[in-house]
UniProtKB/TrEMBL annotation:
<feature type="domain" description="IrrE N-terminal-like">
    <location>
        <begin position="47"/>
        <end position="170"/>
    </location>
</feature>
<protein>
    <recommendedName>
        <fullName>IrrE N-terminal-like domain-containing protein</fullName>
    </recommendedName>
</protein>
<dbReference type="InterPro" id="IPR010359">
    <property type="entry name" value="IrrE_HExxH"/>
</dbReference>
<dbReference type="Pfam" id="PF06114">
    <property type="entry name" value="Peptidase_M78"/>
</dbReference>
<dbReference type="InterPro" id="IPR052345">
    <property type="entry name" value="Rad_response_metalloprotease"/>
</dbReference>
Length: 180
């Protein structure tokens, strides 16, 4: 990992993604293309964005990676096939965030276990926030809590994510006491 000075941040977006810079934009696109959004079919969305998604066994601490193929120019996402499908969903959303927001900065991202120490890098922190908002949009999250259940396990089952991801999302949306 390299350090990047904040002043050197390049936030140029790939021109093809100028209109798709936020989780909300991607959810709108998904609806337009007939991709399920409640909750989001994240692997189908990745395909709609032209990203090739592959599943390969990796060591447990590796979640996945995103790489631009030098010959074809294709963006290839590799997801740890040994992880639980709910963890894979977050990985895919996280790599989508790198593709959409950070492709001007790097053409190779490698991701270890999320939510540990990897948020020291601004791109990792942003990708995690982006992924959480894509899979658990604020409106849908609030609606589920108010109308169905506020239990971490129920939210995790509904959004098909880990309970850790639910807890972090709840906290960032201002909910407290989600230790049940
Ligand atoms: Zn990352």
């Amino acid at each position: 990992m390299a350090f990047i000075k904040k002043s050197e941040r390049k936030h140029r977006l790939d021109p093809e993604f100028e209109e798709l810079a936020t989780p909300k934009d991607l959810l709108d696109l998904a609806r337009k293309r007939g991709v399920e959004t409640n909750p989001i079919n994240i692997s189908q969305l990745a395909s709609e964005l032209g990203i090739v998604v592959r599943y390969e066994p990796m060591s447990d601490e590796d979640s996945g990676q995103l790489k631009k193929d030098k010959k074809s120019g294709d963006w290839i996402m590799t997801v740890n096939s040994l992880h639980h499908p709910h963890r894979q969903r977050f990985t895919i959303a996280h790599e989508i965030a790198h593709r959409i927001r950070h492709a001007a900065n790097s053409d190779h991202f490698e991701d270890k276990t999320f939510f540990r120490n990897n948020e020291s890098n601004w791109m990792e922190a942003e990708a995690n926030q982006f992924a959480a908002a894509l899979i658990m949009p604020e409106e849908a999250f609030t609606k589920f809590v108010e109308e169905k259940s506020a239990k971490v396990e129920d939210l995790a089952l509904h959004f098909k994510v880990s309970s850790m991801a639910v807890r972090i999302r709840a906290k960032s949306l201002g909910y407290e006491g989600h230790n049940a």
